[in-house]
Every structure is written in structure tokens, then in C-alpha cells.
Give the backbone structure.
Amino acid sequence: MKSGFLAVPLTTVLLFITASVSAENINEKMHRAIQLSLKGKNGESLKVFQEIASANPNNFYAYNNMGMVYFKTGQNDKALEAYKKALEINPDFSMTLNNIAQIYKERGQYDLAESHLKKSIEAFKDMDVAYANLGEVYLLQKRFDDAIPYLEEANKRIPTSAQYHEFLAEAYEGKGMKDKAKKERDLANKFKVTPALPGLNP
């Protein structure tokens, strides 16, 4: 199957502010770092995220975003390190739990990907991408019975995602459910005009 693992968009929401840096200043820096990454200036983007994390060590959003830029540029070891730092600060941060699973999935460490995605869903039950990603992890292992309920849930939450319908079609095909698979393929083709993957979100 063609991999289509979904990463959560970069976030600008901030929870931890130090006395030395104003909330407005951090928000401005976070926004600038995201814009730099969107323009392909990932080195500059990382420097700004690092400045935020240095001034505000408990800002797990900065570490999550840093991890996403590292992952985007193929630096998976550094991405994993940044994600782990975010989870040290906030072990229940659903976005990072989802994103770190992406690396484990690519490495074929499906048990770790599965456990982190289940934690992501437990932490934030409305996170449709985690349902879809867990379904994909099961698809890669041909665990169709396990994949179907998570993919059905993802499609129920976001019924216009072409990629979610593609995943579900593959799961149905794996179970020999041809009529259901065809229906999902048709829906996937219908919604392909809408991008399935979320991008960086300023």
C-alpha cells in the first residue's frame, strides 16, 4: 500500500510563558518560524524554535514544531529527540504522540507506533488523524479486522477526506468486501479535489 501517514499541523498555541519573554513576543516568534518553514527556510525556522525553547524550556509546542521541521527535512533522529523532549514535558500531548508514531511506523516499529497512537486517541478522542494513522499501521501489518473500526471512525469524523476513504477501501478489500471497497474508492475519487494531508498551519 502507498503510505500516507498524517502529521498534525504545526501549532501556534502556547501554554508556558516565562517572565523574561512576553506572550506576544513568543507568539510572534512561533508564527515567524512557521512562515519560514512554509517558505522552505527550515534552518532559519529551527533557529527560531530553538530560541523559543531556550527562553521557555517548558514549551512543549516548540519542541513538537521543532520535531516536525526536523522530520520534514529528513532528520528523523533529531525529530525523535525533539518529540521525546515534548513528551517529557507533557506525556499526554496528543499531537506529539501522533507525530512520534509517524517515525516509529516508518522504521517498522509498529508496536511503538500503535501504543503511541492509542495514547494520542485516549488523550484527545476527537483527533481524527490518530484514528486514520492507527488504521494505517494495522493495514501495513494486514490486520484488517483491527484497521476497519479505526478507519470507519476517522471517516465518520472527517467524511470528506479522500485519503481516509482510500485507507478504508484497502481494509475492506483485504477482507474481501468488494462492494464496500468500491463505495469507498468512489468516495475517495469524489473528494480528491480536496487535499487529504494537512499542511503547516500558521
